[in-house]
Amino acid sequence: MLYYALVFLVVAIIAGVLGFGGIAGASAGIAQILFFLFLAFLVISLVVGLFRRA
Asked: Do residues 6 and 14 lie in contact, with contact meaning Cβ atoms separated by under 8 Å?
């Protein structure tokens, strides 16, 4: 999931440099959503891992 967030971020940067504002905004939004989903899943997996050890 982090890989796809980085891919959308790169697409947003390239589209922004080339002047495609709509595509850049949409790609940046998707990258942001995927990044926060990745962080949420990371925290959940860490918490579950701590409870399984105890």
From this structure: no
